[in-house]
Fold this sequence. Notes:
The structure holds two protein chains of two kinds.
Chain A: H1 7-23, H2 36-51, H3 70-82, H4 91-104, H5 107-118, E1 124-127, E2 143-147, E3 150-161, E4 168-174, E5 185-191, E6 197-202, E7 211-222, E8 226-227, H6 233-245, H7 248-270, H8 275-305, H9 315-334, H10 348-356, H11 366-377
Parallel strand pairs in A: 1-4
Antiparallel strand pairs in A: 2-3, 3-7, 4-5, 5-8, 6-7
Helix pairs in contact in A: 1-3, 3-7, 4-5, 4-6, 7-8, 7-9, 8-9, 9-10
Chain B: H1 7-23, H2 26-33, H3 42-50, H4 68-81, H5 87-94, H6 100-107, E1 113-115, E2 122-123, E3 130-135, E4 138-143, E5 146-148, E6 158-161, E7 168-172, H7 175-208, E8 210-211, E9 214-215, H8 220-249, H9 254-280, H10 291-303, H11 308-320
Parallel strand pairs in B: 1-3
Antiparallel strand pairs in B: 2-6, 3-4, 4-7, 5-6, 8-9
Amino acid sequence: xxxxxxxxxxxxxxxxxxxxxxxxxxxxxxxxxxxxxxxxxxxxxxxxxxxxxxxxxxxxxxxxxxxxxxxxxxxxxxxxxxxxxxxxxxxxxxxxxxxxxxxxxxxxxxxxxxxxxxxxxxxxxxxxxxxxxxxxxxxxxxxxxxxxxxxxxxxxxxxxxxxxxxxxxxxxxxxxxxxxxxxxxxxxxxxxxxxxxxxxxxxxxxxxxxxxxxxxxxxxxxxxxxxxxxxxxxxxxxxxxxxxxxxxxxxxxxxxxxxxxxxxxxxxxxxxxxxxxxxxxxxxxxxxxxxxxxxxxxxxxxxxxxxxxxxxxxxxxxxxxxxxxxxxxxxxxxxxxxxxxxxxxxxxxxxxxxxxxxxxxxxxxxxxxxxxxxxxxxxxxxxx
Amino acid sequence: xxxxxxxxxxxxxxxxxxxxxxxxxxxxxxxxxxxxxxxxxxxxxxxxxxxxxxxxxxxxxxxxxxxxxxxxxxxxxxxxxxxxxxxxxxxxxxxxxxxxxxxxxxxxxxxxxxxxxxxxxxxxxxxxxxxxxxxxxxxxxxxxxxxxxxxxxxxxxxxxxxxxxxxxxxxxxxxxxxxxxxxxxxxxxxxxxxxxxxxxxxxxxxxxxxxxxxxxxxxxxxxxxxxxxxxxxxxxxxxxxxxxxxxxxxxxxxxxxxxxxxxxxxxxxxxxxxxxxxxxxxxxxxxxxxxxxxxxxxxxxxxxxxxxxxxxxxxxxxxxx
Lengths: 384, 321
Ligand SMILES: Cc1cc2nc3c(=O)[nH]c(=O)nc-3n(C[C@H](O)[C@H](O)[C@H](O)COP(=O)(O)OP(=O)(O)OC[C@H]3O[C@@H](n4cnc5c(N)ncnc54)[C@H](O)[C@@H]3O)c2cc1C
């Protein structure tokens, strides 16, 4: 056991820190807004991260990645959090589409898609959930009918984040109309600019529209866009979800750390001696350390055995609730003015608090995660 | 960065777990807990023989010359087994602060020690020989004389030290700060062992106990509490191992790490035991079932050196000023 950076890790951390000092954008530090200037600045920042080799850090070199070890990814995320730097724009591409293509894609697919994910030239969205298939993804009905060398896709997806700005979609379809449940599903890469794709933004409780409905009407998708085998889409989708939940641990903790830093700054100015608030802030600090350290334990396990350990399964569950508590606490620290959108912090905490309610729903609801821990980690009988 | 135990340390864990499961099955712990002495004095010689007492004592003083990480493994396993005996008092509190000539006797199992942290009640007073107290800025060893007190956790009874006994100066009172950090780290590890064991017992029960024609573990009101118990225990484990590493390395963060680990892990152990009692139903509420002993130890740990809010106040001071 040694919780210090190795000399090689120290070197990488120093490099990242120096790079961030020189490059961190100033336009992106405020609350998120839908303006075009913001989108452009975000795009530029993502491109810079990519040029520096920090997007797709652990991806294979032959496809433009940096081929770095997972420990570097952890360090990068910590340093981004420390500098309160914004994320790369291609969250779904980097976190889900990319890793899935690396795991199950053909060489041609890797060559075609990975580079453009890193540079944010192409933005991705995830088309999994449907009106009648949320937690129960195996109930998905969006159909993909094979006609010669194309699939013809019809159906509706829901809650798809970034679909309104996306160029590509990872889509779970039912290619065998006779099948039910996990069999007969096919995983497709779909061009969001293809004829027959229609996106309708859905306004969220934050007021912004970050997720969308997507309608597919006779959309033609070439067979070379199948990931994995035809009819084996379930296994491929599980890889995506595994990445969504596991490698996300560090990213989530990093974002929590940013919020905790901001909360501490706020609290120093405002909570003089209030023992209850001090106690609650200390609790959140402890919880953050616990999450951070649990990620490190999981990372060590992954590096040593090549398999993620069961402790990784708790990250998202505990993080989402921690983020909800922390952001509510920040509003309390603000006091009655917390009700104002344009008060101190210009809506930052108001947005963060409302957005946090989505954390226990997206990427597997907390109830589904508890089922998974109960059944797969503790070995309790299946509830379904 | 490497956040795992070495193969040797894991080997020590396996050996300790096997041995303790053999020596301290729940019936034996119950028998000892309900006995007048509260422990089996013969066990001390066995621990000394195994080399467990002097794990981190330098070889010149008869120890194994290992470190707090090896001790950490033992604290966790002894907590899991609910070992009734003055290991925590002797090894976590007193031993590292003693001069080498006194350490040798301890390592050989001849003398047992405890301490009065911040002038508080003394763990295991009735079954140790000497106690470290603070007097006029000095660290003073006094005979273990005083009043044995009836304690909720009868596997770790408290006592009130008699005042005015003649003592021997063995160092200065700055020792108590180090002692507190070590104690908190050790207790956090014990708490993890307790939470883990209580969870295992409960998972087993939830798999086998049937009601309404199904194992109760199928009901989410039951299983989700166990998922939460698992999640909390893993977080507590991470904090406790962090604290252990900080103590072993004398890291600058040792004080906050130990405070964070002790406060969080003891709260977790208490909650996990409470869920465990609930899921066991009426059985969980009996004196006969071992759960209450885990519950009481968890609460003992929670209270020691101040309930968790006291440690959180210390952390708040560190992060908020
Ligand atoms: C901010 C946000 C972003 C999202 N982004 C995307 C995206 O990009 N792409 C995408 O495909 N999807 C996305 N989603 C959708 C998300 O994955 C689903 O909302 C989620 O899987 C739940 O499905 P549902 O909404 O249909 O709720 P339901 O599945 O109907 O669940 C409703 C409630 O019932 C509970 N429940 C359901 N089944 C069980 C069970 N077996 N045991 C116990 N409780 C159960 C759930 O936990 C929940 O509380 C996003 C959601 C949010 C909030």
